Amino acid sequence: MAIMKCPQCGKSISDKQQVCPHCELDMTNLTEEKIHSLSKIKSLKYNQSLQTHQFIATLLFLAGCFSYYNIEDKASPQFVAAQASILVGFIWYVVNRFRIIWAKRSLKK
Ligand SMILES: [Zn+2]
Protein backbone atom coordinates (compact mmCIF):
# COMPACT_ATOMS: atom_id res chain seq x y z
CA MET A 1 0.00 0.00 0.00
CA ALA A 2 1.36 3.38 -0.95
CA ILE A 3 0.29 6.88 -0.09
CA MET A 4 -0.48 9.19 -3.00
CA LYS A 5 -2.05 12.59 -3.41
CA CYS A 6 -5.59 12.95 -4.69
CA PRO A 7 -5.45 14.85 -8.02
CA GLN A 8 -8.56 16.84 -7.14
CA CYS A 9 -8.21 17.93 -3.51
CA GLY A 10 -4.48 17.23 -3.04
CA LYS A 11 -4.92 15.35 0.22
CA SER A 12 -2.98 12.19 1.00
CA ILE A 13 -4.85 8.96 0.31
CA SER A 14 -4.04 5.29 -0.12
CA ASP A 15 -3.55 4.08 -3.71
CA LYS A 16 -5.88 1.17 -2.92
CA GLN A 17 -8.79 3.55 -2.35
CA GLN A 18 -11.44 3.57 -5.11
CA VAL A 19 -12.98 6.87 -4.08
CA CYS A 20 -11.21 9.77 -2.41
CA PRO A 21 -12.55 9.97 1.18
CA HIS A 22 -12.09 13.76 1.19
CA CYS A 23 -13.69 14.93 -2.07
CA GLU A 24 -15.33 11.70 -3.31
CA LEU A 25 -13.45 11.70 -6.61
CA ASP A 26 -13.80 8.36 -8.41
CA MET A 27 -10.24 6.98 -8.68
CA THR A 28 -11.09 3.90 -10.75
CA ASN A 29 -11.23 5.47 -14.21
CA LEU A 30 -8.72 8.27 -13.99
CA THR A 31 -6.80 8.86 -17.19
CA GLU A 32 -3.57 10.86 -17.52
CA GLU A 33 -5.57 13.54 -19.28
CA LYS A 34 -8.16 13.75 -16.51
CA ILE A 35 -5.48 13.96 -13.84
CA HIS A 36 -3.79 16.73 -15.80
CA SER A 37 -6.98 18.76 -16.19
CA LEU A 38 -7.84 18.27 -12.52
CA SER A 39 -4.48 19.62 -11.44
CA LYS A 40 -4.93 22.53 -13.86
CA ILE A 41 -8.29 23.34 -12.29
CA LYS A 42 -6.77 23.08 -8.84
CA SER A 43 -3.98 25.53 -9.63
CA LEU A 44 -6.46 27.89 -11.30
CA LYS A 45 -8.59 27.88 -8.17
CA TYR A 46 -5.50 28.45 -6.09
CA ASN A 47 -4.54 31.37 -8.32
CA GLN A 48 -8.01 32.80 -8.00
CA SER A 49 -7.83 32.69 -4.22
CA LEU A 50 -4.42 34.40 -4.39
CA GLN A 51 -5.97 37.15 -6.52
CA THR A 52 -8.71 37.58 -3.92
CA HIS A 53 -6.11 37.82 -1.17
CA GLN A 54 -4.24 40.39 -3.22
CA PHE A 55 -7.38 42.43 -3.66
CA ILE A 56 -8.25 42.41 0.06
CA ALA A 57 -4.66 43.25 1.01
CA THR A 58 -4.67 46.22 -1.36
CA LEU A 59 -8.02 47.37 -0.03
CA LEU A 60 -6.79 47.11 3.56
CA PHE A 61 -3.66 49.06 2.69
CA LEU A 62 -5.56 51.82 0.87
CA ALA A 63 -8.20 52.07 3.60
CA GLY A 64 -5.38 52.37 6.12
CA CYS A 65 -3.70 55.14 4.10
CA PHE A 66 -6.98 56.97 3.69
CA SER A 67 -7.68 56.87 7.44
CA TYR A 68 -4.08 57.77 8.22
CA TYR A 69 -4.37 61.10 6.42
CA ASN A 70 -7.92 61.85 7.52
CA ILE A 71 -7.67 61.28 11.26
CA GLU A 72 -6.89 64.51 13.06
CA ASP A 73 -6.21 63.07 16.49
CA LYS A 74 -2.90 61.23 16.13
CA ALA A 75 -3.24 59.66 19.59
CA SER A 76 -6.62 58.04 18.97
CA PRO A 77 -7.03 54.27 18.70
CA GLN A 78 -8.40 54.80 15.17
CA PHE A 79 -5.05 56.25 14.14
CA VAL A 80 -3.23 53.24 15.60
CA ALA A 81 -5.68 50.97 13.76
CA ALA A 82 -4.99 52.86 10.52
CA GLN A 83 -1.24 52.35 10.95
CA ALA A 84 -1.79 48.69 11.76
CA SER A 85 -3.91 48.12 8.67
CA ILE A 86 -1.30 49.85 6.48
CA LEU A 87 1.36 47.55 7.93
CA VAL A 88 -0.73 44.38 7.73
CA GLY A 89 -1.99 45.23 4.24
CA PHE A 90 1.53 45.91 3.02
CA ILE A 91 3.05 42.74 4.48
CA TRP A 92 0.11 40.67 3.24
CA TYR A 93 0.52 42.14 -0.24
CA VAL A 94 4.26 41.42 -0.39
CA VAL A 95 3.87 37.86 0.94
CA ASN A 96 1.05 37.24 -1.51
CA ARG A 97 3.14 38.64 -4.36
CA PHE A 98 5.74 35.96 -3.66
CA ARG A 99 3.06 33.28 -3.46
CA ILE A 100 1.76 34.34 -6.90
CA ILE A 101 5.26 34.25 -8.41
CA TRP A 102 5.80 30.85 -6.80
CA ALA A 103 2.47 29.52 -8.10
CA LYS A 104 3.25 30.72 -11.63
CA ARG A 105 6.63 29.03 -11.47
CA SER A 106 5.17 25.68 -10.45
CA LEU A 107 2.45 26.02 -13.09
CA LYS A 108 5.04 26.15 -15.88
CA LYS A 109 6.62 22.83 -14.89
ZN1 LIG B 1 -9.75 14.12 -3.10
What does this structure look like?
- Residues 5-27 form the Putative zinc-ribbon domain.
- Pfam families: Zn_ribbon_3.
- Keywords: Membrane, Transmembrane, Transmembrane helix.
- The chain crosses the membrane at residues 50-69, 75-95.
- This is Putative zinc-ribbon domain-containing protein.
- With 109 residues, the chain is mainly alpha-helical.
- The chain has a domain at 40-108.
- The protein is built from two helices and two strands.
- It has helices spanning 32-70, 77-108; strands spanning 3-5, 12-14.
- The chain has a two-stranded antiparallel sheet.
- A hairpin with a 6-residue loop joins strand 1 (3-5) and strand 2.
- Helix 1 (32-70) packs antiparallel against helix 2.
- The longest helix has 39 residues, at 32-70.
- The protein is elongated and about 65 Å long.
- The chain starts with a strand and ends with a helix.
- The model has no long low-confidence stretch (mean pLDDT 90).
- Residues 6, 8-9, 11, 20, 22-23, 25 line the site of zinc ion.
Percentage beta strand: 5-15%
Catalogue the unreliable spans.
none
List the total number of helices. 2
Oligomer: single chain
What is the makeup of the main sheet?
2 strands, antiparallel
User: How would you spell out the order of helices and strands?
Assistant: EEHH
Overall number of strands: 2
Give the overall form: elongated
Which small-molecule ligands are present, each listed once?
A: zinc ion
Rg for CA atoms: 21 Å
As a percent range, the share of helical residues equals 55-70%
| Overall pLDDT level | 90
The termini sit apart by 28 Å
Read across the widest sheet, the strand sequence of neighbours is: 1-2
Class computed from helices, strands and strand pairing: mainly alpha
